[in-house]
Amino acid sequence: MGEAVRSGRAAVNGVDMYYEVHGEGDPLVLLHGALSGIGTSFGVLLPALARRRRVVAVELQGHGRTPDTGRPLSEKAMASDVAGLLREVVGGPADVLGYSMGGSVAMELAAAEPELVRSLVLISVGFSPEGVYPEVLGGIGEMAAEDMAGSPFYEEYMRTAPDPRGWAGLFAKVQELDSDIRTWTPEELRAITAPVLLAVGDSDIVRPEHAAELFRLLGGGVPGDLAGLPAARLAVLPGTTHITAVHRDDLLIPMIEEFLTDTAAKAGPEAG
Predict the structure, then answer these.
(1) Which residue from 58, 70, 71, 105 has the least number of CB within 10 angstroms?
(2) Considering the entire predicted model, what is its pTM?
């Protein structure tokens, strides 16, 4: 990628978390999707984001270079892991970008530890199982770990995991996680105080009307000329699926950079 990369590990909640630091500047934490890692989730976006930011890319429990533990996969538990990493590695609050499962972890983090999250960028994220097309959830439940052989996610895991034999166990944990998607209440969502940029593909696994409802629950969906622009923003990426959403650097990078710059300016110098 050209720039110097520093990697490290943070021992948090019994998890030996792997992370990489790219670039310099205000901290931006990246949280990947399920069965993914830094490369498959952020290989396209990361180089551009690191031109102006100190990007801390994390690999969550059981993913990539972070070993699994006996603990089930839980977005709340992984959010607690990220909070510990933020305190140890970043030393304070950061902007947080989460994709898919990582976006759900980011939401949990913002709800539980608001002082650690300056702003949220959520890509392809829902707030209840009703937001995901039912045939997608059904298909995930019917798949077997070996069905992913040869996919970019499988190949990345085989290259990076401390024990490549753990793929089947991780796959089973992700299936269990996806079988019990949390339903956020309107009150829980309205309690998230960080400014939010939501991005969803127009052909994502998250239904566009669900993304619009999440936008409203986070404070969006108002006539801005009368009420002023809300702290929440919504972007629907045309011609974009769930997997290709994080490959749309042409659309996402300008929007993310403008959002982060605007949010920081409104927060004032004390936020830095």
Answers:
(1) 70
(2) 0.95
Residue 95, exposed/middle/buried by CB under 10 A (0-12, 13-18, 19+)?
buried
Tens digits of per-residue pLDDT, 189-206? 998 999 999 999 999 999
**Using one digit for the tens of pLDDT, what is the confidence trace for 212-243?**
999 999 999 999 999 999 999 999 999 999 99
Supply 172's token pair.
């089973």
* DSSP 8-state secondary structure symbol assigned to residue 129: G
β-bridge pairing 5-12 and 15-22: antiparallel
SS3 for 100? coil
Give the C-alpha separation, 224 to 23, whole Å.
Answer: 35
Task: Give the 3-state secondary structure of residue 201.
Answer: strand
The C-alpha atoms of residue 44 and residue 231 are separated, in whole angstroms, by: 27
Long-range contacts (CB closer than 8 Å, 24 or more residues apart) made by 237-242:
237/199, 237/200, 237/201, 237/202, 238/202, 239/202, 239/203, 240/201, 240/202, 240/203, 240/204, 241/201, 241/203, 241/204, 242/100, 242/124, 242/201, 242/204, 242/205, 242/206
Q: Give the relative orientation of helices 152-160 and 167-178 as an angle to the nearest 10 degrees.
A: 130
- Per-position b or e across 120-141, b if 16+ CB within 10 A of its CB: bbbbbbbbeeebbeeeeeeebe
Cβ(56)–Cβ(30) below 8 Å: yes
DSSP letter (8 states) at residue 72:
P
Q: How far is CA 244 from CA 40, 69, 124, 220, 238, in A?
A: 10, 30, 10, 25, 11
Classified as helix, coil or strand, 81 is helix
Query: Among all chains, which residue has been given the structure tokens 């939501």?
Result: 198
